[in-house]
Amino acid sequence: MQIFYHEGSRTFHLCNDSISYIMTILRNGHLGQLYFGKRIQDKEDFSYLLETCERPMTSYLYENDRTFSLEHIRQEYPVFGTTDYRQPAVEILQENGSRISDFQYQSHEIREGKPGLRGLPATYAEENEEAKTLIVTLYDAVSGVRAELLYTIFALGGVLARSVRFFNAGGKTAYITRAMSLCLDLPDCDYEWLQLSGCWARECQIQTRNLAPGISSIGSMRGNSSHEQNPFLVLKRKHTDERQGEAIGFSFLYSGNFRIQAEVDAHETLRVLVGLDPETFTWKLAGGEAFQTPEAVMVYTDQGCNHMSQTFHRLYQKRLARGYWRDRPRPILINNWEATYFDFTEERLVELAKKAKECGVELFVLDDGWFGARSSDKAGLGDWVANRKRLAGGIAGLAEKIEGLGLKFGLWFEPEMVNKDSDFYRAHPDWILSTPERSASHGRYQYVLDFSRKEAVDAIYVQMAKILREAKVSYIKWDMNRSITECYSAALPPDRQGETYHRYMLGVYALYERLTSEFPDVLFESCASGGGRFDPGMLYYAPQGWASDNSDAVERLKIQYGASMCYPVSSIGSHVSVTPNHQVFRNTPLHTRANVACFGTFGYELDLNQLTKEELEEVKEQIAFFKRYRRVLQFGSFYRLKSPFEGNETVWMAVSEDQKTAIVGWYRVLNCVNASYTRVRLQGLHPAYRYRNARTGRYHYGDELMHVGLLTSDETAGQVPDGVEPYTDYESRIYVLEVEET
Ligand code: DGJ
Hints:
Layout: E1 2-6, E2 11-15, E3 19-25, E4 31-38, E5 90-94, E6 104-112, E7 131-140, E8 145-154, E9 159-168, E10 174-186, E11 191-197, E12 205-210, E13 214-220, E14 229-237, E15 247-252, E16 258-264, E17 270-276, E18 283-285, E19 290-292, E20 296-301, H1 304-319, E21 333-335, H2 337-340, H3 346-359, E22 363-366, H4 394-404, E23 408-413, E24 417-419, H5 423-427, E25 446-448, H6 454-470, E26 475-478, H7 500-518, E27 523-526, H8 536-539, E28 544-546, H9 553-563, E29 572-573, E30 576-577, H10 590-597, E31 603-605, H11 613-635, E32 637-642, E33 649-655, E34 661-668, E35 679-680, E36 690-693, E37 699-701, H12 702-707, E38 710-711, E39 731-739
Parallel strand pairs: 21-22, 21-31, 22-23, 23-26, 26-27, 27-28, 28-29, 30-31
Antiparallel strand pairs: 1-2, 2-3, 3-4, 5-10, 6-7, 7-8, 8-9, 9-19, 9-20, 10-17, 10-18, 11-12, 11-14, 13-16, 14-15, 15-20, 16-17, 24-25, 32-33, 33-34, 34-39, 35-38, 36-37, 36-39
């Protein structure tokens, strides 16, 4: 991993074993992009890559040079309004009403390691040898604004992290109306676009399309990163698949409004922009003030999408998630939500916990409904005090009982919200986001607290911290159940209203930071009605997230498969729930529900006391299996082998770090009569290791399993031979492959 600067050609070259990123200082002082891709040798001068020619109907910066038009130059941080007609990365509104700026190179600095981003989630380096950072300072002399472009190259793979820090070094006020975290101008547009889209209970659906002239974009203006579009994009070559070919993944480490777009111009070059949604953002930058954009991460590979995903998984598992739980296997939990909803008594909870303990569960989570006047979703949010009618001994009392059973205790909060029917709202009616003289809309009868106000965040902190100090709480599920509307802060002046959405997010992050620092052993799980904020910003504070309110095993195949494009299995919250399922009313076998959920954090969300004796025995076995293989399942290398978006079967697998254990999950949605013979080629095994297939008792070498494949044919073929269990719809199998120690 190195960062070169060649004075003669004014060229920067960031490289590691996997990638090269090359840029140069252009004639006008702006930064130009020369190359991003597979690692190439360094040399003094790559300026030939700056292709320009004289073109009609173009505007030029210099009278003596009819080739220098920014419209035709690949740039690093393009500005608005001067010879480049594509969408810019930055726009600064100045006191005289102009939005033109001219960010010219001023200086640069190369640092070991990676600096943190104040108040924002970011990837990090633990040792200086893990990363190097280049900070290029650009300056717009007229507005007096400085832009520091941060580029961090990691040793761990084809990763480049980017962000921008603005500083107003002049005396005049400037308004940042667009501040993208990343711009990547590529020399061609021969890519397929892959995004993760959906809606509530149908998150992370893989959608692909071809790029065409004009702008393709995804984003959110909902105040959360959203169920609708995950802040993640892949650009892959037409023939790239999971196992081979070029792909570039873009991920935005932010949990609020964002925009990711790709613009194909008339000459088939491509501009990718990743950052805060410009539509819902402006930031007043008075003299002496600074503004830091959130971070964006790019991953390049020439080894297919699965390799790109594994790079993201490693980075996000090891150098985004933090703290006590980062590397630890996650506890198997039981959550009472789908078991009881709001209809619980302390006695019922304890009965559920007892049964869970009998089965081997490790953590009991009390979901919504334990506080204030909450007996439905119409009241109580904001009053984070136990309802003594339901929980006579308060949270401390219940936690003690649960701990007494030998389980850890976890608790649900929705810190950012209030119901109007709450003491908190009655005391602070002006602390919700709402626009003067306009009515405030609700979502699920709740209103969004103005987290851009420190006093509002502090007041929620005080309530939460009190509970965490008084009661033995080992886990928090932090929910967020509505999108933001009428986003206006009564605490901000008119010319700062454009900051509200982002200040809100900074407030959320500040509360997370405070609680995770003060209670470092508590495991946080983020949630926003399932996957409404399933993003890398959250992962910095909460190493796992509830991926979807849809707990149906078949639906989960797509959701978890899609999520795995960017997010590690250890971050994907997934539970076994009851059938008929509460979202799609489908009946799936208990083993299939567990076989899907075990490729995630794993837990249960049903009333175990309603299960039959046989079912409880099965649950015990599932838990014992998960405990045995949890480390491989959650922290092993994850391979996608067959996509649920492309057919009736899904196959994925996890391989342990030492390659001695592999767990393959095979799932078939609909049964089919007289089915074809099927086999699937595995990946990531050691070619020379001899694995025992626990299902068949046969032995196979790794190369055999990877090149010949694992046989997954259905032995029943419509006529069930004696002694063979017939398969049904929603069938699944787990194959454990282990090298036997001699
Ligand atoms: C939405 C979450 O996603 C559910 O799991 C549950 O916690 C409910 N909120 C509670 O209101």
